[in-house]
Amino acid sequence: MTEDSTTTVAPAPVEVQKGWAGQSVKRREDKRLLQGEGVFVDDIKRHGMGYLHFVRSPYAHAHITRIDVSAAEAVDGVYGTLTGEEVAALTDPFFQISSAPGANIKDYSLALGKVRFVGEPVVAVVAETRELARDASELVEVDYEPLAAVVDARHAQDADAPVLHDDAEGNLMWTGLYSWGDLDAAFAEADRVIEIPELHFHRFNSTPLECDGALVEFNRGVEQWTIHTNNQFPGFAAIMMGPAMKVGLDKLRFVTQDIGGGFGNKITSHPQLVVCCLLARKLNRPIQWTEWRTDFHLSMSHGNERWFRDTKVAVKDDGTLLGFRTKALDDAGAWLRYEPLGGVIWAQVTPGMYRWRHIELDFTQVATNKAPVSPNRGYSRMQHLWFTERVIDIVAKELDLDPVEVRKKNYIRAEDMPYETPNGCVYDSGDYARMLDLALELIDYDAMAGRKAAAKEQGKLLGVGIGSTLDSGTNNFGQSRLINPELQFSGNNEVATVKLDIFGEIVVTLGTTPQGQGHETTAAQVVADILNCALEDVHVRAGHDSYWNSHAGFSGTYASQFAVTGLSAVKGATEMLRDEIFKLAGAVFGGVPAEALELADGGIRIKENPDAFLPFMACGAIINANNAGLPEDLDVTLNCRYVYRPPFEVPDVETKFGNLTLTYAAQLHVAVVEIDPETGYYEIVDYAAVDDCGKRINPQIVEGQVMGATAQAIGAVIHETYEYDEDGNLLTPNFYDYHVPHALDMPPLATGAIESPSPFTPLGTKGMGEGGGAGIHAVCAAIQDATGVVVTDSHNPYRRVWEMLR
Amino acid sequence: MDVSVTVNGTTYARDVEPRKLLIHFLRDDLDLTGSHIGCDTGNCGACSVIVDGVLVKSCMLLAVQADGASIETVEGISENGELTPLQQSFNEHHALQCGYCTPGMLMSATALLRDNASPSDAEIKKALQGNICRCTGYWNIFEAVKAVAK
Predict the structure, then answer these.
(1) Which of B41, B94, B143 sits opposite A734 (nearest CB)?
(2) A37 interaction partners in chain B (CB closer than 8 Å)
């Protein structure tokens, strides 16, 4: 943050309205968090619990020839251990999403016979204290026979490459050709074909400040586990864990209150949760597991590293984009824990923001001896959108055209909305050109020529860059069938319950697992508007508990969907409750029709006779505790559960065509960088981020998401990387080596917003929160603008910029 | 080893393993779970507390080193359950999302404002430099602290 840092909010054309939605209501989650009274998973304690520590592989690739836990188990205070052999005896391998060859790999929750990345869990040790568990782990003897490792995805399919999974008969995990439009015609029509040999999107993740963890209890009498965890997608964890553990999902109770950041990185902790469950049963005591920071960096949810090779772009001389061909090579790491879904998720935003109609992408995902990749904020779309934006700026440079003009010429236009993309996705609404104008205005684009000249006089290089994100939200899980036609997933859902309790309490439960997105606040805003009551009268339960029956198969907080799935469920349940209150009041008032009634002041009354007023307290009391004499046919419980199901069809597997997400929020970022050519050091001297996520229920919370995503982008492009040496050792296994931006690293930021309500969602909202990819590209483009050198990597530390200038 | 500390005005005497970190002592032994752990290496500041008037990262101190000390943690900064002006300002400015870094941020800001009631913008940022936040990008945290500086 420079000295003159400011945040300005451009006026957004928000319609004036009454009610809570649209207001920046202060968050109700904050009080407990500000007083240190949040409940995060590591805060939970149980009598007699044992602390779990993992013995991890020191090798990137090795056979395990012997494991001896006896010395560790002999230590006073050590409760027990678990090995891969035991896991294999007690569980089945995890279900694989992939079709062959990835489908053939056997993934257990501890290494079995072989390790495949540095940091892979091999043995679990449980002891009376954290310190003892860690010490006792040192006493576990594991003999390894090291093998050659493959760490560069580009060499994973070489004839002499070491093979990670013999069951897959090679390192190819999944491959698929996507082709839409008429590529040959597009290239025949082109004035120019721009060739881009190789672009690289690097490996990093969002490093939530709270690492993964769990407190797992086993109730022997009912053979059920209660899993207090910060896993952010319990629906997914359950369908992975249940079949592996050979138990029904009723035996797995997931409980969460506060989660210390997720960003997608907390979706794939199911292997560790299985280990905790097995040990809770084996040792007959609660198991506490919290990752150490280095554990997280070594083993958890790296973002997808991707190469784009042999790209050919068909363009007209005037900058009109016709189409492109490219080969995407994706590095999955050692296991497919959520992959190869990244192989289709990118297709939600196939053309980016542009009108080209002829696109071919040959996608290949390989295994390497590195940590498994899993969703990371902007999952898979970020890589692809960075690629499309890179193409725009490289084309503009080759044709000597203004990147602003190339974008405006090719943007999907506001009047084209809803717009069907070449692969059948339907962009619901938006005005990208207007967003760009607003962003350029926020950084005073007209002054740039003068500033560039002034910087040059000072011996500095100034550049401006644009980046965009389409934050596609509310997945159609049917897209998984493009990866594996055998899968039986499609659509999406989320649940809310709203009830009126005995003393008139309006109680809301959500199926979601928020990690700071303010669900308790925004849900209350929606409920209070429908029931026309005070915000304070709405009580939204904190967290998630699968015992509440307020969850569905896809429940969780991931992939930019709460504002659609979560809030639509809340809306549906609240409207059911509202209708029941009308029915009840009609009966109590002696047959008054619903149209003669209205909600007001925390109750319901007769419009023409406001003195005839039934407070919610009376409604709740009558139904719950004083219901004798009510009409027999009065179908009212005041306890309403609603499942929101977005309107989706199963995509066509042959043509890979169909709508993959319901909403397409957009972010447009512009960065101005100033480079010292002597050292390569650069500063972001101005930055603008413009967001359009349709109707905003709470603009301040939306802006907070924009800011957070921006900061993560800045971290990723300049500092953050999971780099490995040639032997597969992670070079950034802690916050010393993995530099996360701090307060002094932040540039001045101007934010702006427009609202293009979604025509497809009940509240006009769009999911949002994953806009960081825009910032990564904006900085890359600004570096290219300043240096005149084509930027080919998403990670540009000062040394790389220095090298570019040599 | 016997350790006696006063935390937020309450004195605790415990038998502590010599190698136990102060943050684990506070969280695991005293059940004061408001202070958090984010990195284990002194980088992130989620465990920041004030020991005898000095801001420290409690993962960088052994519990036995704090013997006899007076410690302030996030649980102690508000009185009677009411938010302090600094805490209210965090709420007003949306200076927290997941809230995991927040206790450490509050302790760093508290220590700053005690030493310097009228910090410059640069001094505020420098005071927060030792605290990592992954949700907010710091802009709103800066604004929240600045709003209560005189």
Answers:
(1) B41
(2) 34, 75
